[in-house]
Fold this protein.
Amino acid sequence: MSGMGIGITDVGQIAVNVHDVQRAIGFYRDVLGLPLLFEIPNAAFFQAGSVRLYLAKPEKPEHDHPSSILYYKVPDIRAAFESIRTAGAQVEGEPHLLARMPDHELWMAFFRDSEGNMAALMSEVRDS
């Protein structure tokens, strides 16, 4: 297909490898505050805005690797960062300015989940 693509309109689900599903549930629910949708054996599903996160033990050895970096949008990066740090997340430095855009600044702060996967908070701070 040329030009029109295949009709993708959104990301529906992202898989995140975990080794301890119950520990990961605690982190994603209690530290990040994401709604737990449901659990199945060796997996749990959370809602992150319009995207569903699928946290599961790797089914095969070749799938056992760190996840892609998920960037969670937040309106106030400093408040969100302090909240996850206070809740026990392993942070990887303070929030920092990544880029100045014509109408906003892009801020990032990186952390690790309970399974060692890198993740980030991101905030688009509009000019006042």
